[in-house]
Known about the structure:
Largest sheet: 4 strands, antiparallel
Number of helices: 0
Number of domains: 1
Number of strands: 33
Strand order of the largest sheet: 3-4-5-6
CATH architecture: 7 Propeller
Amino acid sequence: MLAVAIATAVIGGTIGLQNYHSSADPEKPPPAPPAAPFLVAADAHGSVVFDLSREVILGYDRAGKLAWQDEAMAKNAYITCVAACPDVVASGSLSDQGPEARQATIVRADGRFATRPAADADVVLLQRDDRNRVVLERRLEGTFLASYQKGKLTQRLAMANPRMPRIAPGSAGSMVIASRAGSSATVYFVARSGTGWTIKELADRGASGGCTGPASSAVVYPDRAVVVDQSSGRKQTVQQDHIGTCHVAGDGLLAETTSVGPSGHRSLVRYWDVRSGTGWTMEGTETVNASLDPSGTRAVVVQGTVATIRAGADQQVIQDVVDARYAEDGSLVLLHADATVTRR
């Protein structure tokens, strides 16, 4: 058996490694499977793509026209849009791998290009501009989640072992990030406030994660998810083990899980309308990417090179799509195998 490592996407531009196995003649190993591009970020204004085959980051405008490309940025671990895609800031890793593993921070915004030295270990999670942003700071005394508004530090909370954040549709939207210490996790909700953000630590230490979106947010526990209406505070509970990666909008909750076993990949996508109690399930044998539209009633599920748009029992299939994401204006960003982008 030959293990071939290729990069696959997680949320927010962080790259992990996943092993694919195939039988092979040891004298002539098979070629590596093609590495599909993936969406790093997308909003109503543009999108950012990692083209793995060429190891380059691509920035597209709303019409799908290539605005810029950057090979150096592909070495960075975390990329997020600045105010509006495809303006971006690319910074370090959520896991502290030491000074030798740090990459220079690269900023492409307002038609300008700038770099900051690799000695800066901060990870920019959300940013409107240099004066308004949320940053993961690494200092000698520990790791901190910090919010800056109008250039001034407004909050700074200690956190250990930060996990991948879940960012709501829209480049300057809200975010959920969890940290883990041993068997316990702490969940932080980051919401827009004026020109910056406010960080709120969830008091319930039984939570393991969450997600946030238009009009609602969700807190995930080992055996359930609680969806909270942001205006009324109304709570609806979905009893389900192993929620996995969640997406939330309105009364809709979407959960996706992918597992790898002896028989290969198994993906499971589940949707619930928390008010009516109705829902649906999709299963497959390939890695899955899913996204929920701002109304919370429509989802797109990508398996392999096929995207399925689903609203209740209605389904529409689109071929030659390797990743897809709904933007905050309800438009659907589709990424194709040749790393080009279209929108509908």
